[in-house]
């Protein structure tokens, strides 16, 4: 867990409904471009289920393993355990974090939080990192909470909490540096990479922005 902060720098999330070409191709390019962590999130209209979902997850995990990129599963704890994934990400509408922590042992546990109260509860329940957002407007998650900018990230840092944090929601090469400046350890994106004409170039620029803190154009 020592390197969790480093691994969160450019955290790419993908499922088959987020891309216009084969997700395996998109992930392979994103890995070559420099993503540092990956989340399999198979959700939304037309999402795969059953054996098709399992097989896609297995293929994506195998791409991650070849390049030592941590592989996290969104929501589906049983899938994460079946694949021996590196961790899971859950939100406030998913299984309670305390129950998930019991099920997954010392695998990475990410929890979405939207307030100080949720953050403190998640810490008590064993969260390793927070996903905070949507920072900016997003079209990718239909049931996303209202956009709140970087206020919660700033509040947590101002109050001295050092828990690893990623900002999520509407993050692009242009605004990634704002999220880092607020105190995040990294940025989590779907469409900025999955919809890019070159997922390789998009991942490469995001990595550069996160590491240099430079504003994009
Ligand atoms: C890194 C990261 N942060 C937040 C989320 C959102 O999780 P959740 O609120 O459970 O919503 P869904 O992704 O399940 O629709 C995330 N997945 N990853
Ligand atoms: C999963 C999730 N949780 C909060 S916003 C969001 C969607 C992020 O997608 P994008 O990077 O395309 O805005
Ligand atoms: Mg969820």
Keywords:
217 residues, alpha/beta, 16% strand, globular, binds the ligand Cc1ncc(COP(=O)(O)OP(=O)(O)O)c(N)n1, binds 4-methyl-5-hydroxyethylthiazole phosphate, binds magnesium ion
Count all strands and give the number: 8
What is the architecture at the second tier of CATH? Answer: Alpha-Beta Barrel
Radius of gyration: 16 Å
Class in CATH?
Answer: Alpha Beta
Number of spatially distinct domains: 1
Low-confidence stretches: none
Strand content: 15-25%
Principal-axes geometry comes out as: globular
SSE pattern, N- to C-terminal: HEHEHEHEHEHEHEHEHH
The distinct ligands, each listed once, are: the ligand Cc1ncc(COP(=O)(O)OP(=O)(O)O)c(N)n1, 4-methyl-5-hydroxyethylthiazole phosphate, magnesium ion
CATH superfamily: Aldolase class I
Separation of the first and last Cα atoms: 34 Å
Pathway: Cofactor biosynthesis; thiamine diphosphate biosynthesis; thiamine phosphate from 4-amino-2-methyl-5-diphosphomethylpyrimidine and 4-methyl-5-(2-phosphoethyl)-thiazole: step 1/1
Domain Thiamine phosphate synthase/TenI: 10-193
Family: Belongs to the thiamine-phosphate synthase family.
Binding site for Mg(2+): 75, 94
Any overview of this molecule?
With 217 residues, the chain is an alpha/beta fold. It has a single domain, classed as Alpha-Beta Barrel (TIM Barrel), CATH 3.20.20.70. Helices cover 41% and strands 16% of the residues. The protein has 10 helices and 8 strands. Strands 1-2-3-4-5-6-7-8 form an 8-stranded parallel β-barrel, surrounded by 6 helices. Strand 2, helix 3 and strand 3 form a beta-alpha-beta unit. The chain is globular and about 45 Å long. It starts with a helix and ends in a 5-residue tail after the last helix. 45% of the residues are buried. Magnesium ion binds next to loops.
């Amino acid at each position: 867990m020592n390197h969790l902060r480093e691994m969160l720098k450019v955290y790419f999330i993908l499922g088959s409904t987020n891309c216009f070409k084969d997700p395996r191709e998109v992930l392979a390019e994103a890995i070559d471009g420099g993503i540092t962590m990956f989340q399999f999130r198979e959700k939304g209209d037309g999402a795969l289920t059953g054996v098709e979902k399992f097989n896609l997850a297995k293929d994506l995990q195998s791409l991650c393993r070849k390049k030592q990129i941590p592989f996290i599963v969104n929501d589906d704890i049983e899938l994460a355990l079946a694949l021996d994934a590196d961790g899971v990400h859950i939100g406030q509408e998913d299984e309670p974090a305390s129950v998930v922590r019991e099920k997954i042992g010392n695998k990475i546990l990410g929890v979405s939080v939207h307030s100080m109260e949720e953050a403190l509860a998640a810490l008590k329940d064993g969260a390793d990192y927070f996903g905070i957002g949507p920072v900016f407007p997003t079209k990718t998650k239909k049931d996303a909470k209202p956009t709140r900018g970087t206020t919660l990230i700033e509040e947590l840092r101002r109050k001295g909490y050092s828990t690893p944090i990623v900002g999520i929601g509407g993050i692009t090469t242009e605004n990634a540096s704002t999220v880092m400046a607020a105190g995040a350890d990294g940025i989590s994106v779907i469409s900025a990479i999955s919809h890019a004409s070159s997922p390789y170039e998009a991942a490469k620029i995001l990595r550069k922005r996160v590491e240099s803190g430079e504003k994009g154009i």
